[in-house]
């Protein structure tokens, strides 16, 4: 199967949608809190993406696969003038994030709880300042590599929605996925890797809060790479 056909053939880039049963409060948050933050990528695309937010924002950032929300909420609180769109298809992770904002929903945050491809295809061209893909599902078995989110077709999507000079940031502790991403971005030709020395890509991003996936990697003896690409 070619990369260009993987999504259309129904091969999702994520695995299971739900884990252990939700507690009553978590289920209630999905019903009552999520709709206030959710975007609808099947409706009309906004002319100005800033209109999605109650806050006055001047930059726009997308995080694909926010997990438990540690990084996303850290950035949301750190950068009130940035509008954030967070995407996470795993129900339990969405519920965890909602539990942290319940009753004080940030006005610079919007969420989507399904496939990121729908949002990427809905966003206006040249509308984002940054895309974060942090510790994505590595699909470690070779036969599953075609399901990795970094692909030529998704890099085309990134390139379309990023502003000129916009950033694509990728972090992983899986060597094969790090190499995969570097090779795919080089092959694409629309992204410039910003590392000048080894220390550049082994050093976490500024004000990095860490994530639970990163903590697990450290416990298991794996280091991480933090790759930054600019749209050219």
UniProtKB/TrEMBL annotation:
<dbReference type="InterPro" id="IPR029063">
    <property type="entry name" value="SAM-dependent_MTases_sf"/>
</dbReference>
<dbReference type="InterPro" id="IPR055361">
    <property type="entry name" value="tRNA_methyltr_TrmB_bact"/>
</dbReference>
<dbReference type="InterPro" id="IPR003358">
    <property type="entry name" value="tRNA_(Gua-N-7)_MeTrfase_Trmb"/>
</dbReference>
<feature type="binding site">
    <location>
        <position position="173"/>
    </location>
    <ligand>
        <name>substrate</name>
    </ligand>
</feature>
<feature type="binding site">
    <location>
        <position position="63"/>
    </location>
    <ligand>
        <name>S-adenosyl-L-methionine</name>
    </ligand>
</feature>
<comment type="pathway">
    <text>tRNA modification; N(7)-methylguanine-tRNA biosynthesis.</text>
</comment>
<feature type="region of interest" description="Disordered">
    <location>
        <begin position="1"/>
        <end position="23"/>
    </location>
</feature>
<keyword id="KW-0819">tRNA processing</keyword>
<keyword id="KW-0808">Transferase</keyword>
<feature type="compositionally biased region" description="Basic and acidic residues">
    <location>
        <begin position="1"/>
        <end position="10"/>
    </location>
</feature>
<feature type="binding site">
    <location>
        <position position="88"/>
    </location>
    <ligand>
        <name>S-adenosyl-L-methionine</name>
    </ligand>
</feature>
<dbReference type="GO" id="GO:0008176">
    <property type="term" value="F:tRNA (guanine(46)-N7)-methyltransferase activity"/>
</dbReference>
<feature type="binding site">
    <location>
        <position position="141"/>
    </location>
    <ligand>
        <name>substrate</name>
    </ligand>
</feature>
<dbReference type="GO" id="GO:0043527">
    <property type="term" value="C:tRNA methyltransferase complex"/>
</dbReference>
<protein>
    <recommendedName>
        <fullName>tRNA (guanine-N(7)-)-methyltransferase</fullName>
        <ecNumber>2.1.1.33</ecNumber>
    </recommendedName>
</protein>
<dbReference type="Pfam" id="PF02390">
    <property type="entry name" value="Methyltransf_4"/>
</dbReference>
<feature type="binding site">
    <location>
        <begin position="211"/>
        <end position="214"/>
    </location>
    <ligand>
        <name>substrate</name>
    </ligand>
</feature>
<feature type="binding site">
    <location>
        <position position="115"/>
    </location>
    <ligand>
        <name>S-adenosyl-L-methionine</name>
    </ligand>
</feature>
<comment type="function">
    <text>Catalyzes the formation of N(7)-methylguanine at position 46 (m7G46) in tRNA.</text>
</comment>
<feature type="binding site">
    <location>
        <position position="137"/>
    </location>
    <ligand>
        <name>S-adenosyl-L-methionine</name>
    </ligand>
</feature>
<keyword id="KW-0489">Methyltransferase</keyword>
<comment type="similarity">
    <text>Belongs to the class I-like SAM-binding methyltransferase superfamily. TrmB family.</text>
</comment>
<keyword id="KW-0949">S-adenosyl-L-methionine</keyword>
